[in-house]
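--- STAGE predict ---
source: upstream dedup step, 1 unique chain passed
mode: sequence only
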Amino acid sequence: MPAFNILTHRLKRGCETMDYPDGRAPALPDRHGGALRVDAARCGDGCGECAAVCPTEAISHEPGRPMTLDLGRCIFCAACVTACAPAAITPTNDYRMAARRREDLVLGAPGGEELRLAAALDEKLRRMFGRSLRLRQVSAGGCNACEADVNVLNTIGWDLSRFGIQFVASPRHADGLLITGPVSRGMELALRKTWEAVPEPKIVIAVGACAISGGPFIGNPEHLHGAETVVPVDLYIPGCPPHPLTILDGMLRLLGRVEERKTAS
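--- STAGE serialize ---
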């Protein structure tokens, strides 16, 4: 009775996927501080220590202007958190970071104290992609860290396909692209051709600091400093690399599968 034994074994194992987003999200590991929060009022005399230690120039600290932190350039090394004596920059342990607009990732500016989480696609696109989204993943010169965390979503504990989201081999079978890496000059043409091969309407998701801004490769002449220099981007998911939960949350927000909420305190 092999079939009966298989069914019995599966019943004993129970459900092995996490209950997110219907239930409580799994906790981030201790070494992952999650999104950062900026309290410009605490900056005091503006010592500039945080900007001095930032390896990607994600922090702007100009005289007479409030300090800002660009999560799209941030590699979450936490050097600024350690250097900031008045604790104007603090980790939140919040996995939610995805945004629809590039400027929404800049914290600290007037009106930008809180991270504006991604809003859903318009109603027409949600009807098309909300229950079945096919993505072609493009590694445009990345180090494989973001790619690895994207791959985690296909494992049994995450089971990305239960949300109707799947990765496909051909851009002609895709509804959009998921891009990692800073877009090296050698990948520019390949990325452009892949984008052109995806039928309309289509979307683009930039995953990781490299795909958003160039990340640690900012200033390198052999990179184009992010996907939006080549193709239009609909969703930005910061991190270096982003936690799989951050990537999943961003995609579900884009599809209107989770409610818009403010970041946790």
